[in-house]
């Protein structure tokens, strides 16, 4: 049962949908930040709290959480960007007066383009520098 009723900004259902999309986008951004925080905490703990004779191996072991958290962060970033795109499309249709009732509450992951987000500065600068520092520490500092 598809409805073709045109919606306006002041409609309560439109406001609820916009708030729902904004909160979902915020959750993705918060999850991304949590990945970065957890990665730093785990890598720091592995390197600083490991016994002296195990420290070289701990630095190598630290690469695993860096890659894992970078992957999760990339996924959250791709979802966030997709949802932002959907949000912008929704608002554009709303302002053009072409938004229909059937378009409400449809929030799905469409084009996550996970692989394209790896080159995002928020990913490669952050995790790349952690990875490089770990490798340099393994090669130089702890000989």
Task: Give an overview of the whole structure.
The protein is an all-alpha fold and 143 residues long. It has one domain (12-141). It has five helices and no strands. The protein has helices spanning 12-48, 55-61, 63-96, 114-117, 121-141. It is elongated, with a radius of gyration of 21 Å. The termini are far apart. The relative contact order is 0.18. Keywords: Membrane, Transmembrane, Transmembrane helix. The chain crosses the membrane at residues 58-77, 123-141.
Query: How many domains make up the coordinates?
Result: 1
- Number of helical regions: 5
Number of beta-strand segments: 0
Overall mean pLDDT score?
84
- H/E element sequence: HHHHH
Largest sheet: none
First CA to last CA: what distance?
Answer: 70 Å
Using only C-alpha atoms, the radius of gyration works out to 21 Å
Q: State the assembly state of the protein chains.
A: single chain
Low-confidence stretches: none
Strand content: under 5%
Q: Helical residue percent?
A: over 70%
Shape: elongated
Structural class, by secondary structure, is mainly alpha
Transmembrane segments: 58-77, 123-141
Keywords: Membrane, Transmembrane, Transmembrane helix
Describe the structure concisely:
The chain is mainly alpha-helical. Helices cover 72% and strands 0% of the residues. It contains five helices and no strands.
Write the layout of secondary structure elements.
Blueprint: H1 12-48, H2 55-61, H3 63-96, H4 114-117, H5 121-141
């Amino acid at each position: 049962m598809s409805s073709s009723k045109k919606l306006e900004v002041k409609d309560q259902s439109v406001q609820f949908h916009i708030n729902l999309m904004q909160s979902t986008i915020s959750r993705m951004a918060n999850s991304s930040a949590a990945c970065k925080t957890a990665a730093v905490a785990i890598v720091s703990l592995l390197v600083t709290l490991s016994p002296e004779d195990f420290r070289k191996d701990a630095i190598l072991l630290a690469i695993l959480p860096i890659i894992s958290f970078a992957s999760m962060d990339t996924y959250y970033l791709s979802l966030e960007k997709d949802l932002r795109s959907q949000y912008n499309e929704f608002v554009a249709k709303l302002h053009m007066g072409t938004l229909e009732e059937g378009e409400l509450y449809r929030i799905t992951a469409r084009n996550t383009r996970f692989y394209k987000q790896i080159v995002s500065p928020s990913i490669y600068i952050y995790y790349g520098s952690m990875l490089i520092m770990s490798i340099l520490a393994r090669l130089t500092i702890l000989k």
